[in-house]
Amino acid sequence: MRIVDKLIEKNRDWVSKMNESNPNFFDGLKNQQHPEVLWIGCSDSRVSSNVITGMMPGDIFVHRNVANMVVSTDFNLLSVLQYAVDYLQVKCIIVCGHYNCGGVIAAYHSRQLGLIDNWLNPIRDVYFMNKKELSSFEDEGERINRLCELNVKQQVHNVCHTTIVQNAWDRGQELSICGLIYDVANGLLKDLKEVHNSTRNIPSIYVVDSPET
Ligand code: CO
């Protein structure tokens, strides 16, 4: 069976199960979505936002890329972020990384893979900025996993540095940004306790006042 036929067959099974448990489910989602969460995660096939959190279609607005990066010149990310914050008015933005992330592992090792090395360069910056802490780990796997955590924390900050998020806070919009990490070995999410709901803990150089204020 072709993979696409298998996926369609699985889809039909899923639709029947959904209709059995809630005959109005699809009707309710037909014209609108009101997700409260924007999820910025890794493209890794093991870290599907809705599957690992047990959430339903309509619950999470999602952006995924290699190594859950928030790059301030990435129009794709910025468009998702602006739409989520300004129009969907999500209440929470989660940056979710994961241990054993191939992107982080590739950034850690210095063997060229191609174009993607440029995408991964900001992770090398995270390593460089935290070299002292990271070199204290004897075990390389633990060191890389700590780099995965530090990368999430940096990407949380990068979300907070955007004018999109800062303008929402200026308007008094309820919006928190937080970092989670997923353990592919046991399926558990861990809160990295990197939470921001204002510019209070953002270094002033990154806080840019809007022209109206
Ligand atoms: Co990954």
Question: How is this structure best described in words?
Answer:
The chain is of the alpha/beta class. It folds into two domains: 1-31, no CATH class; 33-206, Carbonic anhydrase (Beta-carbonic Anhydrase, Chain A), CATH 3.40.1050.10. It has nine helices and five strands, in the order H-H-E-H-E-H-E-H-H-H-H-H-E-E. The chain has helices at 3-21, 25-29, 49-53, 75-87, 102-108, 116-129, 131-135, 140-160, 163-170, and strands spanning 37-42, 60-65, 92-98, 176-182, 189-196. Helix 5 (102-108) packs across helix 6 (116-129). The mean pLDDT is 96. The site of cobalt (II) ion (CO) has 7 residues, from helix 5. Cobalt (II) ion (CO) binds next to helix 5.
What CATH architecture of the largest domain do you see? 3-Layer(aba) Sandwich
* CATH first level of the largest domain: Alpha Beta
The CATH topology of the largest domain comes to: Beta-carbonic Anhydrase, Chain A
Determine the mean pLDDT.
96
By helix and strand content, what is the structural category?
A: alpha/beta
Total count of strands: 5
Bound molecules: cobalt (II) ion
Q: Any idea what the CATH superfamily of the largest domain is called?
A: Carbonic anhydrase
H/E element order:
HHEHEHEHHHHHEE
N-to-C CA distance: 60 Å
Q: Any chance you could write out the topology, listing elements then pairs?
A:
Layout: H1 3-21, H2 25-29, E1 37-42, H3 49-53, E2 60-65, H4 75-87, E3 92-98, H5 102-108, H6 116-129, H7 131-135, H8 140-160, H9 163-170, E4 176-182, E5 189-196
Parallel strand pairs: 1-2, 1-3, 3-4
Antiparallel strand pairs: 4-5
Cobalt (II) ion is lined by residues 42, 44, 67, 98, 101-103.
